[in-house]
Amino acid sequence: MTYSGFPEFNHDQAPRIGVLVTNLGTPQAPEKRALKPYLKQFLSDPRVVEIPRLLWWFILNGIILNIRPRRSAEAYKTVWTEQGSPLLLHTRDQAQALQAKLSGELGEQVLVDFAMRYGQPAIDGAIERLLERGVRKLLVLPLYPQYSGPTGGSTFDAVAADFTRRRWLPDFRFVSHYCDHPGYIAAVADSIRRHWEQHGRAQRLIFSYHGEPRRYLDNGDPYHCQCHKTSRLVAADLGLTEGEYMTSFQSRFGREEWLKPYTDETLKSLPAEGINAVQIVCPGFSADCLETIEEIGEENREYFMEAGGERYEYIPCLNAEQAHIEFLATLVREQLQGWLDTPVTAPEVTLEQALAKGATR
Ligand SMILES: C=CC1=C(C)c2cc3[nH]c(cc4nc(cc5[nH]c(cc1n2)c(C)c5CCC(=O)O)C(CCC(=O)O)=C4C)c(C)c3C=C
Ligand SMILES: [Fe+2]
Ligand SMILES: [Fe+2]
């Protein structure tokens, strides 16, 4: 086994702190041929689909990868922009804005890069770039406000797998969640308030989160509780009472029971209960993507209107808006405590000086 390293390492290089922002990932193009490898990588992850491997291999390769890529490609086509996938573009913009904000506050010592858990740019490449630029302390910040095994757990696995092949590991920190961070709650609540200022209020505010199999919750995954916590705190910030908001779960996949209530079924049933004006917000997504733009913005709107709904408004994700970046910078500064306190300077002794003093390489 040969571990990878940087033999030409320069002792004069200033040690830096790296912040690796990540999100889920996206195909290279909204085409069937790009969806197949993307979905294969994503759905082969045992953190995402917890089914005995051999059985799942047959279902995935025999059925799902023959049907889903075409269907998903059609959905991706409706959200794709000239520059590419919305999730990728927002994540890039978030990382760039975060770098600008942190450089303004802390100078050159903090380097921000971004990566996707599945597809490109990949996590191993981003870690390589950061280490090459002198990062000796690494903070990984997956942009999932709530922790779940399929998202945060899987991101940790990818980082850890990358580390197993490296010679020199950095100090390492990992943000598992920020579902109840006052800065995050305030940023989401403010975005809803701004929407209300422009459009007025509806009868009900719906918090819709990506779902996962109910079994994961039963086996101890905190995701469901963390989603409810975010809803509760945002609702409290907005002064909403219990009947004025609700939490539901979207993006069901497969036949198994997922977290309930399901967003689509909820929207289909609300008009019959006399609720025909709703606003939907998705604080489990830090950036707009297929699941928000197409599924919430389009598909679920149709369900609601066809069921007799009259007013349906989707409140966008925080994306790279200023309040979000300010919150992320606060979160990073908090996470870097102890690391930032130490003045980050170049080592006092250069390799040449050390060798002159009799050290061996
Ligand atoms: C099959 C199981 C899946 C689990 C469990 C799951 C959890 C989960 N996902 C997100 C965030 C996103 N998911 C996105 C797309 C997406 N998710 C699944 C499946 C599961 N997700 C699939 C198959 C897809 C691909 C699209 C499709 O074919 O329907 C995205 C959007 C990506 C984009 O490019 O826009 C996000 C974001 C969370 C937070 C989560 C937590 C439990
Ligand atoms: Fe998903
Ligand atoms: Fe719960």
Task: Describe what this molecule looks like in 3D.
GO terms for molecular function: ferrochelatase activity; metal ion binding. It is found in: Cytoplasm. It catalyses: Fe-coproporphyrin III + 2 H(+) = coproporphyrin III + Fe(2+); heme b + 2 H(+) = protoporphyrin IX + Fe(2+). Strands 2-1-3-4 form a 4-stranded parallel beta sheet, sandwiched between helices. Strands 6-5-7-8 form a 4-stranded parallel beta sheet, with helices on both faces. Among the domains are: 16-26 and 85-177 and 322-335, Rossmann fold (3-Layer(aba) Sandwich); 182-315, Rossmann fold. By secondary structure, it is α/β, with parallel strands linked by helices. The model has no long low-confidence stretch (mean pLDDT 95). The longest helix is centred in the first third of the chain and has 27 residues, at 53-79. Helix 1 (32-43) crosses helix 2 (53-79) and helix 3 (86-106) packs across helix 11. It is built from 12 helices and 8 strands. The site of one fe (ii) ion has 3 residues, from helix 8.
